[in-house]
Amino acid sequence: DIEEIATPEGRVFAPPRVRRIAREEGVDLESIQGSGPGGRITDGDVRAAADERSDSDTPDERSTASPD
Amino acid sequence: MVVGDVTTGTDVLVIGAGPAGYVAAIRAGQLDLDVTLVERDAYGGTCLNHGCIPSKALISATNVAHEASHAEEMGIHANPAIDLSGMMNWKDGVVDQLTGGVEKLCKANQVNLLEGTARFDGENTVRVSHDGEGQGSETLEFEDAIIATGSRPIEIPGFEYGDEPVLDSRQALALESVPESLVIVGAGYIGMELAGVFAKLGTDVTVLEMLEDALPGYDDDLSRPVRKRAESLGVDFEFGYTAAEWHDIEDGDGIRVVADPVAEPATDGGELETADAESLELDAEKVLVAVGRKPVSDTLDLEAAGIETDERGFIPTDDRARTNREHVFAVGDVAGEPMLAHKGSMEGQVAAEVIAGEPSAIDYQAMPAAVFTEPEIGTVGLTEDEASEQGFEPLVGEFPLRASGRALTMNESDGFVRIVADEEAGFILGAQIVAPEASELIAELGLAIELGATLEDIARTVHTHPTLSESVMEAAENALGQAIHTLNR
Amino acid sequence: MVVGDVTTGTDVLVIGAGPAGYVAAIRAGQLDLDVTLVERDAYGGTCLNHGCIPSKALISATNVAHEASHAEEMGIHANPAIDLSGMMNWKDGVVDQLTGGVEKLCKANQVNLLEGTARFDGENTVRVSHDGEGQGSETLEFEDAIIATGSRPIEIPGFEYGDEPVLDSRQALALESVPESLVIVGAGYIGMELAGVFAKLGTDVTVLEMLEDALPGYDDDLSRPVRKRAESLGVDFEFGYTAAEWHDIEDGDGIRVVADPVAEPATDGGELETADAESLELDAEKVLVAVGRKPVSDTLDLEAAGIETDERGFIPTDDRARTNREHVFAVGDVAGEPMLAHKGSMEGQVAAEVIAGEPSAIDYQAMPAAVFTEPEIGTVGLTEDEASEQGFEPLVGEFPLRASGRALTMNESDGFVRIVADEEAGFILGAQIVAPEASELIAELGLAIELGATLEDIARTVHTHPTLSESVMEAAENALGQAIHTLNR
Ligand SMILES: Cc1cc2nc3c(=O)[nH]c(=O)nc-3n(C[C@H](O)[C@H](O)[C@H](O)COP(=O)(O)OP(=O)(O)OC[C@H]3O[C@@H](n4cnc5c(N)ncnc54)[C@H](O)[C@@H]3O)c2cc1C
Ligand SMILES: Cc1cc2nc3c(=O)[nH]c(=O)nc-3n(C[C@H](O)[C@H](O)[C@H](O)COP(=O)(O)OP(=O)(O)OC[C@H]3O[C@@H](n4cnc5c(N)ncnc54)[C@H](O)[C@@H]3O)c2cc1C
């Protein structure tokens, strides 16, 4: 009873266009905390997750990408 | 290869031109794929020729006549005469217009059309045999194939469809005269839709159903208004019976259908007890068997391409509509439940897009379904029970049609709109509607579910007055404890 | 204060029990406010008693009769007789059921009901006078007031409503016999809805309209199918004329309506030219004036509370439904265009919530509207032109009803669904629908706009087959260049 009720597994709340972007970017929607109403996942949430991942995946690229 | 045989090739082969196959072919054409669509019978498949479209045409037409003759309360006195052959001609015209349209759309989207029956002949080939004498066959090579061969009605022992008084739904939709009496075996959606049509045509209809209610796939409170309305049209129901056999009535016209009571587990949990009710004998002019449909996968020589089916004959697929073979897809009725046209069309689109390299997937949150009875039923997503089973805390809102101004002005006040949401965030999880136009009203809720909309989103969207769609808004408000036109629970 | 006068108090006073006022009162009650609703005439206001509801009831009923008598093509032969008094009784029953419901709902939500006419008497007081002899009046003190006094039909010079053959819409909806012939002045939505009703009742209808088309508030391609259908019902249109006067026909029954051609600016941009067409003389049994409605704000002594109106008599309000006085709100028709029931109800809710301290506001993205003609019109949000004017690059998708399987099975193929989106991100900006059930179909698009849905979201939401709502999906797909059932532009 004290346990927090989490959204049942496998169910994400995100519009079709966001689900498509997630597939394109290879982002797992279940790993994202949505910023929309009620925790709905938005385009921006997915793109941010994609950016974050590519940032941490390719640190070298990041340093070369900022020429100063 | 047989001498004299022609081998041609295509990038994408689609087998079957029903709503799954022709949609796949058109989308493939739009994506500039070289696509060939093979159909053995008629463009549009079951749905356009013998299913959705002719059934809905007859439902609309018989409704027009029935409404007018039952509108004394509204001050209208009419006694319409129905000319069945006129009605069937009109229906056939509707079908022709739509199937002709499908053919044109295929051509306009550069789909190669091929008439014939396809069977796999290897990993990347089918043989297409043409009907009629001397038509022969040809071999077709493909890179990717989409199987969209649909389904056929299930037969029950003793009721073979070839026999004259035993009808399947296709034959029932093409009768040349109104039967005086009809036994319908099966109270699923096809049986119930046709029970309404025939009752309104003046046929004495009896529905036999093995289970204990009409539309057994639906919750009681959804099916009840439909069953009651059917009863008020004069339809008799016999629940808990299975059709055992039929024979011609001696010294008389018509046939006698014998139905046996279903053996039920004893309520005390003990051993199986043969129900002690006696067999029924129902006399009728014809009997329509509508007990379900099964996939058309047995006539395709699937083994030749190494494609697997499950124990019921469906071809299992993944979320890209792919079978166990990477280059072969299956869509529509042959790929599994729910056997609905729009489910097949969506899968057809996905298959074509995946072949074209697009990031498409079968990722719907909810599949709507409708029953075109009186009143209609429309459902999408989860029921309250299903939501609980999946671990949600369901929050439910309802609105009864008798409180809807629009429903009263239509003289139709049976039914309700129910919305199931998740208590925590208010996300819409499902909806069940019994109402006139339920098939249309469910669209808003389907969109709501796909978008991840909440109760508040629906409640705060202005809905036109006076419409039935206001009932959707009111049901959402009711879940939030702030409905205006009904008391909040 | 007058001797013998009673002063009572209420936290929230609502004046007028139409869809704006009663909804405000119910919501206030739900929010535990002490609320009093004053109504001088009938619960439900114009909408339930003399507007939306009775008009839609008569539209439905006459449609039932008309459809049945025009369904030969579908094999149905009927010659319905209409008993107008039966139809009116049924309609009155519908109205009574709904207005009785409103009264019950008010009581169930602890709304104090007071019959009488309210006028402001100071900043925080109204006098409520009771009709009937010796009923007197009382003073009521309030902290916050919500004005919801609605609107009344505009009169045109020479056509006073008291005169027997000159009808307003309220009287037209309550006629005791079917007029043989009727001139309708004004081809707005009320005029067009009633033109259809009377034409189907058998009346010889002529519609006079000052401007050049029926439903002049709507784009040509939306109004055209409606005008054409009306013409096929036998309705005559006279565009570019204004009603000038009427007189009894000498030596005959009925009246003669004289209509003058409208003076138009010369097409060469020169000075005003009196159109050289001659005046028209139209003989008819009655004339219905439906040229618009104006706010009921002149009978309230608004000055006593310091409340301002604009030059047309509307009470300007901010996005909290507040007038220029902090503690006084105005909602519904009296607060301005669009004069629609659902707009008023939404404002009523907001006013009550703001008074209760909730963070509510009038913040809708789009206001739907419907015309219940044949076919219906449903609109929401921006047209293509409006979207351009607002700086969007509009992307438009359309689907013609003649390509809809469901429409053909209803024998109704006039019309289309159009969706306007913004090209860049695909956000839905508006929709225009002419179709059967357009009033219901528009709901999905209203929700789409409120939620910021895109074309892709609608296109990827599975829609039930066969339904009219598929046309919404197809229009979205058409905008994306990937419609299946129509060619993509
Ligand atoms: C009476 C009735 C009413 C219905 N009403 C509805 C409804 O209202 N809504 C709804 O969603 N669904 C309805 N359905 C179900 C709907 O018809 C099916 O779900 C739909 O037709 C499935 O589409 P499909 O493309 O998978 O198969 P089908 O439509 O069955 O098409 C398959 C096609 O493949 C062809 N074919 C098969 N094998 C071969 C081969 N080897 N070579 C070449 N061609 C082949 C067949 O000739 C057929 O044309 C109804 C069904 C019936 C019977
Ligand atoms: C024929 C017709 C058809 C229509 N169809 C539609 C439709 O389909 N959809 C739609 O959205 N709209 C329709 N409308 C418009 C709709 O009726 C109005 O928009 C709606 O009624 C406005 O609601 P309201 O609450 O602002 O005012 P009203 O409904 O006009 O209610 C105002 C109430 O205030 C009372 N009142 C006024 N002054 C006082 C006072 N001083 N003291 C006490 N009480 C007072 C009146 O008696 C009345 O009951 C139609 C209108 C007509 C005439």
TrEMBL record, chains B, C:
Pfam families: Pyr_redox_2, Pyr_redox_dim
Keywords tagged on the record: Disulfide bond, FAD, Flavoprotein, NAD, Oxidoreductase, Redox-active center
Note describing how the cofactor binds: Binds 1 FAD per subunit.
GO biological process: 2-oxoglutarate metabolic process
InterPro entries: Class-I_Pyr_Nuc-Dis_Oxidored (IPR050151), FAD/NAD-bd_sf (IPR036188), FAD/NAD-binding_dom (IPR023753), FAD/NAD-linked_Rdtase_dimer_sf (IPR016156), Lipoamide_DH (IPR006258), Pyr_nuc-diS_OxRdtase (IPR001100), Pyr_nucl-diS_OxRdtase_dimer (IPR004099), Pyr_OxRdtase_I_AS (IPR012999)
Annotated catalysed reactions: N(6)-[(R)-dihydrolipoyl]-L-lysyl-[protein] + NAD(+) = N(6)-[(R)-lipoyl]-L-lysyl-[protein] + NADH + H(+)
Enzyme class name: oxidoreductase
Domain FAD/NAD(P)-binding as annotated: residue spans: 11-348
Cofactor dependency: FAD
Any one GO molecular-function label of the UniProt entry: flavin adenine dinucleotide binding
Miscellaneous note of the record: The active site is a redox-active disulfide bond.
The protein's name in its UniProt record: Dihydrolipoyl dehydrogenase
Organism: Halostagnicola larsenii XH-48
